[in-house]
Amino acid sequence: MDRTKHMGTASDQEAARTIASRYLSVHERGGYTYRPFMKRGIYRREDYRYLADLKVLLPDAKLGTFSYLWGRYQAPMVMNLRFALIPYGPIRVFVNGVLAAQSDIFSERARSKQIFELVMHEGFNDVVLECENTSGGFGGEFGTWVGKLDYYFLMPDLYPEQEGFCYSKTLENQLDVLDAQHLNVLAWLPELPDFKDDAVDLGRIFNDASAQSYVVVATALHLDTSTWCNVICNAELSIDGKSITGSVELSEGDHDLVCYAKVGDGFELSIKEARTNAPLFCHNPVLDLNSSYRYLFAGPFDMRPEGFIVQCSKPFATSQGQDFWHLEGVSTYLRMYNDNVLFGHWNYPLGVTLYGLVETERMLKPTEPELSNRIHSYINRHIQSSIDTYAYACWDAEHLGGATAIHHLMTSLDSLDDCGSFASTLLEVAKDHELHDYAPLMEVVGNYLSKTQPRLSDGTFFRTGLMHTFHENTLWVDDLYMSVPFLCRYAAYRNNPEYLEDAVHQFFGFSKYLFLQEEQLMSHVYDFERNLVTGIPWGRGNGWALFSLSELLTVLDVDHPKRDALLSLFQGLSKGVLRLQGENGMFHQVLDMPQSYEESSCTAMFACSFSRGVRSGWYPDGEPYRQACLKAVQALKETAIDSEGHVWGVCRGSEFSCSRQYYAHQLLPRLDDTHGIGIVLLSLCEAQKLG
Fold first, then answer.
1. Could you tell me if 475 and 528 are in contact, meaning their C-beta atoms sit under 8 angstroms apart?
2. pTM above 0.90, yes or no
3. What is the pLDDT of residues 473-489, one digit of tens each?
4. Residues in Cβ contact with 39 at an 8 Å cutoff, skipping those fewer than 6 apart
C-alpha cells in the first residue's frame, strides 16, 4: 500500500463512502450468463468433477487405442490451476500442447486421486487428456481437487460456449502434436444437430412425449430496417404478441417470436424478405447472436398452455413435471451460469460484505441520499437475484448432473458456511428493504441448522460428512458467525425463542472446546480425529467469536438466565484481545505472535465488538475499549484503506493447522478480499456511532 494515499485524515463516513463507491463501480452491473449444455458425454457430476468413462462412451473401442478429451479453461491471469485426476487407465494431461501431468500405475490400479498444479496463461488455455484403452480401464475422472469448488471448462470452438469436454473417436496411434490445428481434424463427440436443417424434429428433443403434446418455441429476429416479410410456419405463431400468418411488415429493431407446435408435427419456420426473397435468420433470445442454437423449446404440455410466460430465470410446470428450456439436439438445455465473482452469489464472505454495505447505506442516508440509494438498489438486486434463481438452481442440480453454476453452495448444502452468513444478512436487509419470496430459502436454512447440521452429543455444531474431507470431525470457531447471527434473526423472523436458545447454547458448547482459559482467547479449531485443541489464537477466528457474541447480546433479554455468563465471556474475551493490540492500533494475524503480519479483518471485528460493548454498557469500565475501537479504526484508515477505496491486509480464506507458521506465512493477506470489505465498513459505521 502506498502510505501517502491512505485515508488517515478522512472521517469514518468519508472512508466508508470511498470503499462503497469503489465496490459499486466494479460490481453493481452484474448479471447471469446463459450457455448451451449437453447432458451427454463428459460433464460435471455431484462431486463437481468431470466423468469420462470411455468404456461406456466408446463401447466398441479396441484395446490399445487412444481417445483425446479436449476442454478450455479461461484464466483471469497467469495462475496455477489445482487439478485432480482419478485415472481408470493411463492418462497424459497437456496444457496448450505441452505435457503437464500424467497418471502413474499406482493411481491407475487403485483409481485414486492425483493432484497437479497446471500452469495457465491469461485467457483461454487448451487442456487435452490423452487416454489409452487398457483392460484395466479407459478414461477417468478429473477437475476440481475439492468438492464444491465450482470451476469448469468450456469445449473448443466446435461446440461454442458449451461447458464440458468433447472426446474423440479412437485412434490407433498417439498424436505427435497436440495443438488446435491437429486436434480439429479428429472426429469429435458428442454429435451436434444439423443446424442447417430448417425443420426441427421435436420428437428427438421430447422423445417420451405423445405426438399430440404441445411445445412452446421461442426465438427472436433482429432487423436493421423496417422490412416486409413472408412468414411460413407450420405452427401457430405470434410476433411481439400478435398472431401472424403470411406477409407482415416488421419495424427496425428486435422482435420476439413465440410458436405453439405439436410434437408429432415437428417445427419449421421460414422468414424471407418479401422483395428479394432473401432468408432472414432468427436467433436464440438469450444466447449470443451468432450461436448456432436458434430456438428455445418448452414442453411437453397436454394442452396448449394458455398464458405461458417466456422467462429464463426459473423452471416451469409441464405435463411431465418441472422443466427448463431445451435446445436443438438430444438432451440439450439452456443453462444458467454466474461468471461475475461478486454478484448474485450466495456465500459467507459476501454475506458479511452485504452486511457492511447495508449499514453503510443506513449511515449515509441522512447526508448522502444519492449514494445511499445506489447501495440500496445494489443490495436489493444482488439478494433478490439470489432469491429468484434458487428454484432454477434446485432444478439444475436434480436434472443436469448435480454440479450447479448458480447457487452451488445451497444446492450442495453440507456446512454452516454454505448458508448461515448470507441468510443472516438477508434477514437483516429485509428489515428495511423490499425483498420478495424469500420464505422458502429461509425455511431451507432454518431446517438445515435445526435438523440437519451435525452436532456433538451435547448439541454443539461440528463438521463432519462434508465434501471437503479435510474438515472431517472438527469444530471451528468460525462457525459461531456462520450460525449464531442467523439464529438470532431467525428467532425474531419466526417468533420462536427456541432458535435464540440454540444460539445461546452454541456459545457455551464452542467455549467448552475452544476457549483458552489462560490466554482468554479462542483457539481456531478442535480436532476430534486427534482429540486435541490446535491452540492457535487466529485473529479472524477470535473476531468471529467476539463479533457473534455481540450480535447475540444485542437481542438477548436482560433477564435471560444465561446472560450474565455470556457477558462474562464477552468481557473475558475482550480483555484477552485488548492486551494484544499493537501500538498503532492494529491486531496481528496470530494474536499473540507480534512478528505475524497486521491483519485488517480481525482488527475491524474487534473494533465493532468493542464499540457495541461500550455503547450497550457491557463493560464495567468502557473507556479502554472506546479508545481501542477508535485507535483500531484510525489504524485501518492509515494502513488498510487507500484513497481509491481498496481494502488491504485481509487474510484469505483458511484451512487450519497446529502450526503458527501456517497462519503467519501461508495464510497471506489479499487485496479487496470479501472476508474483510464488509467488516471494515461495519467498523467505520460503529466508530461513527461511538463518536
1. yes
2. yes
3. 999 999 999 999 999 99
4. 331, 332, 333, 399, 400, 401
Average pLDDT over residues 562-566: 98
Cell 478414461 belongs to: 139
Measured CA distances, 147 to 86, 295, 568 (Å): 14, 34, 40
Distance CA 511, CA 533 (A): 12
| pLDDT for position 4 | 62
User: What beta strand segments (E) does 266-341 contain?
Assistant: 267-273, 296-301, 316-318, 321-323, 332-337
E strands along 172-278, which residues? 188-189, 199-200, 214-223, 227-233, 236-239, 242-243, 246-250, 253-262, 267-273
| Residue 410 and residue 390 in contact, taking contact as beta carbons nearer than 8 Å | yes
Task: Dig out the grid coordinates for 434 from the structure.
Answer: 423490499
Check whether 1 has a pLDDT greater than 80: no
Q: How far is residue 380's CA from residue 385's CA, in Å, rounded to a whole number? A: 8
Q: Which DSSP symbol is given to 137?
A: B
Residue 485, classed as helix, strand or coil, is helix
Phi and psi at residue 342, in whole multiples of 5°? -120, 25
Read off φ and ψ for residue 422, nearest 5 degrees: -65, -40
Name the DSSP class of 470. G
Query: Is a pLDDT exceeding 80 seen at residue 507?
Result: yes
Tens of pLDDT, residues 81-91 = 999 999 999 99
Q: Which amino acid is at 537?
A: P
Q: Are 378 and 433 in contact (CB under 8 A)?
A: no
Strand segments, DSSP code E, in 535-627 are 587-588, 598-599
User: Number of C-alpha atoms within 13 angstroms, CB side, residue 513?
Assistant: 25
H helix runs in 163-244, sequence order: 180-183, 202-205
**Predicted local confidence at residue 2, as pLDDT:** 63
Confidence of residue 290 (pLDDT cuts 50, 70, 90): confident
* Predicted confidence band of residue 244 (pLDDT cuts 50, 70, 90): confident
Neighbours of 98 (CB within 10 A): 10
Q: Per DSSP, what are the bridge partners of residue 496?
A: none
- CA distance readout (Å), 662 to 521, 589, 605: 19, 11, 22
**Contact in structure between 670 and 677 (CB atoms under 8 Å):** no
Q: What share of the chain is helix, strand, coil (3-state, %, to 5)?
A: 35, 25, 40
- Segment 603-623 shows an average pLDDT of 98
Distance CA 269, CA 282 (A): 9
Given this model, what pLDDT does residue 3 score?
53
**pLDDT tens digits for 121-173?**
999 999 999 999 999 999 999 999 988 888 999 999 999 889 999 999 999 99
Asked, as a colleague might, if the bond just before 156 is cis with ω within 30 of 0, I would say no
pLDDT at 517 over 70: yes
User: How far, CA to CA in Å, does 178 sit from each of 52, 391, 448?
Assistant: 19, 42, 48
What is the model's pLDDT at position 494?
98
State the Cα–Cα distance between residues 197 and 189, nearest whole angstrom.
20
Helix axes 348-364, 369-388, angle to 10 degrees: 150
Contact 417, 348 (CB under 8 A): yes
**Local structure of residue 585 (DSSP, 8 states):** S
HSE value, Cβ hemisphere, 13 Å, CA-based, for 126: 20
For residue 691, pLDDT over 90 is answered with no
